[in-house]
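Today's session is about reading a structure prediction critically. Students often jump straight to the picture, but the first step is always the sequence itself: look for stretches that repeat, for charged clusters, for runs of hydrophobic residues. Only then move on to the predicted structure, which in these notes is written as discrete structure tokens rather than atom positions. Here is the chain we will use throughout the hour.
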Amino acid sequence: MRGVRNLKTVSGRVTRAGTAPDARSYHLFMKVTCLEMERVRRSTERAAAVRRIQDIDQRLAEIDREKAALLEQLEARGDLGHYGVSSPLSAGRMRDGGFLIQYG
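Below is the predicted structure for this chain, in token form.
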């Protein structure tokens, strides 16, 4: 699906074959300006995407730390095997796009 983010400049679509040389120069400067504006817009989008990826990576690391701490508590209590969880990887299996958790 195309959206606003896929818009491109229209700097090269209008040709002025019969215009004066100074007007043609004006159009070339306008093309340069449009390209510079698109570059700034894309740079801003890229910076926002990089920040979002960093936030997601940070949250994934937090999730892994919290999960490890909880599994350590269960193992210390001796409850890890009681609920049918033999390893951290088998705690949640993917099934039809969701998780299936078994409680023994």
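Discussion point for the tutorial: The CA atoms of residues 67 and 88 lie 8 Å apart.
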